[in-house]
Write a structure and sequence with these properties.
Elements lengths: L1 H29 L5 H22 L6 H15 L2 H13 L3 H30 L1
Length: 127
């Protein structure tokens, strides 16, 4: 139990640092005013989830600790739907209703597409 908590914490720390890096980079590239960082991590995180789900399902030798490190720890800290919700409300309360709606639509549709793409790529590589 302690080992599992430790690997989740390690993965979570790495995911949080990676998320911060994406946020900083997205501000440098796109500027402020729209939650580009959150959008990017949600899409990228969904894509990585698709890759890992397929990869791990074809690798019986992968330990539960490695799965927890990557899926629960890293991706759990990297992806940010709680922050997504806050961003939507912030845009809405600022009066940017069209941006808020576009952000919700882009986040949901592109994240699901990212997951499908990750699944397809890994299934293609595993065949």
């Amino acid at each position: 139990m302690i080992a599992t908590i430790g690997v989740i914490a390690l993965g979570g720390a790495c995911g949080a640092v990676a998320r911060h890096g994406v946020n900083v980079l997205s501000v440098q590239i796109f500027g402020h005013g729209f939650p580009w960082g959150t959008l990017c991590v949600n899409i990228l995180g969904s894509f990585m989830m698709g890759l890992l789900v397929v990869k791990f399902s074809h690798m019986a030798q992968v330990s539960s600790e490695i799965r927890m490190l990557c899926m629960t720890g890293f991706l759990g800290a990297f992806t940010t739907f709680s922050t997504f919700s806050l961003d939507v409300v912030t845009l809405y309360e600022r009066g940017d209703i069209v941006q808020a709606g576009g952000y919700v639509l882009a986040s949901v549709v592109l994240s699901i597409m990212g997951l499908f793409l990750g699944l397809m790529i890994m299934r293609g590589l595993s065949a």
